[in-house]
Amino acid sequence: MAFSLSSLFLVCYILKFTLALIILNKEIETSRGMLYPRESETREVRTLDGIWNFVRSDETNPTQGIRDGWFKDDLSKSMPTIPMPVPASYNDITTEQTLRDHVGTVWYDRKFFVPRSWGQDQRVWLRFGSVHYEAYVWINGRSAVKHEMGHLPFETEVTHLLKYGAENRITVMCDNALIQTTVPQGKISEVANDEGVTIIQSYTFDFFNYAGIHRSVHLYTTPKTFIEEVEVKTNLSQNNSVGTVDYSITVNGTAANEAENTLLARLQIYNREGVQVANVTSDSKLVGSLQVDNVKPWWPYLMHSDPGYLYELEIRLYAAKEQLLDVYRLKVGIRTLSWTNTTFLINGKPIYFRGFGRHEDADVRGRGLDNALMARDFNLLKWIGANAYRTSHYPYSEESMQFADQHGIMIIDECPSVDTENFNQVLLDRHKSSLEQLVHRDRNHPSVVMWSIANEPRTGQVNADTYFQFVANYTRSLDSTRPITAAIAVPSNDDKAGRHLDIISFNRYNAWYSNTGRLDMVTQRVISEATGWNKKYDKPVLMSEYGADTLEGLHLQPAFVWSEEFQTEVFSRHFKAFDALRRQKWFIGEFVWNFADFKTAQTYTRVGGNKKGVFTRARQPKAAAHLLRQRYFALGREVDQCNVPNDLFTYIADVGGSNVKHDSADL
Ligand code: GCB
Hints:
By secondary structure, the protein is α+β, with helices and mostly antiparallel strands. The protein has twelve helices and 32 strands. Helix content is 21%, strand content 29%. The strands form eight sheets. The chain has an eight-stranded parallel barrel, surrounded by five helices. Strand 23 (344-346) and strand 24 form a beta hairpin. The longest helix has 19 residues, at 564-582. The protein is globular, with a radius of gyration of 26 Å. The model is unreliable at 12-19 (pLDDT under 50). (2S,3S,4S,5R)-3,4,5-trihydroxy-6-oxo-oxane-2-carboxylic acid binds next to loops.
């Protein structure tokens, strides 16, 4: 039988996708160490934060610095330098467009002293909280470490590279270029401009590709044989009265290699008052369990009167004959997570998320760690009554994870995969590596309650199925104690990834991107989309993004797009849908997009950036913030019986018997 032209075309078409489908689930290199640097009896920490020297490379010659050996001496001997703060994104520090939009490599260096005492009988480590996107590091002109992937820490031993009791130089080359095999993906192209040609970085994601040394740089010491890894997993008895902390410790060092059996660890748990509540001596495998009676579980904010309860786990590593080798202390929150196809529970109680999608973003410092901003953000989260946020669209600072633990804010922890498409082998390997590094870094945080393996991946594409099966199963193999999600934007009918997830999250902008301005086309659409996801996969569902761009101070009545009235109305129409959905137990949460306004690439749809913030970029509330606050506390009151603040409602009038709310007792 002869093939028709159309069936030949079909065969070729299928073949093309079958070939593209051949993505292998390869082993990837796993990260080591990376405990947050903490001082102890056996460890010293110092920071290299401050003002560094900085050079922007010529975009058309990004490898010039390597070829010319800029790392061999002070940068200023090769090129004129400018001062650059660390940590910070470099983009908005100067007034130059060429630096803001620079594509390719930049260089940093600085000098520092290392105490003479550090050269004796111990090891010294260099650790970066994050550099975006790729980093090459030299100490005194010798290569120290290379790392690819923004928003995640990396470290290396530098004992042999340092001069003790003398001056040292650290040089960093950072490359911000994103291509189709980086996480996230981007494109570099050469285009004509008025002077000839120029290089352009483009990307589909909706946030500015800030770059540089974004988080702190630390030097720290450890003993020769030291605690390299600690992993804890916690559990509670049926009635939450007894807690268990399962631990596993990995040691690095010669004492371990030469005589493994001679090592043991003594572990003690202290409560908030500093009273010891559990202790155990490990066997030589350094794996075991501690039991805490009358435990105070870790509870989310507003789910309990004492949220974010943390114990301190002290680990003392000994060699034979009671010789103390190393001491490391870790905060531990004791809690359980469990989920079914209809619910998600913490400590046996159903969770209803009241949260935000956020960004690490601020003017001038970009994505650079800023403790003042972080503290303000947590105060605002608590003021508004939120109990959760998603680290959209990349891992946030370790310092903010520690804050979330302390304040009882639940985190959906997202890896840097955004708008993922053109699924290919290199991308899969890097995507898995980003999750490995994320889980490794954050697995001990009680605040982390879910892993998000991607934001808005193109999951309608044929090969998304295999790709996300590999990514989800890999994440599960790293941590089976937390559910896995991804924020999906394709219609549920087209999606091919949801079946690999535990919880379905969906993003949708009714009355904004679809049916712009139509406030009468929100509520029913949200209800039916959420229901469609649940029907398709029979799993818990949450709405991970909804919102409207809002120009602070723009007031238009009746509500009109971009006005404060419009944002308020869009929220209210969603609340109505969420309340209808909440009656279905499988609907487990609502996340506004976004916590605060943030910078994006330049486009005619953005006025100075994305303005969907409930707070301005300067962290002041827009009108809708007050409405959201009333809802989040009302939900807290209904779902978790929390107390509500006295100033939640503004006094209006004493009209007893009517429905007018005039104080929080009316809730
Ligand atoms: C989305 C994206 C988010 C954008 C947002 C928007 O779906 O996940 O990164 O910022 O929409 O405002 O367009």
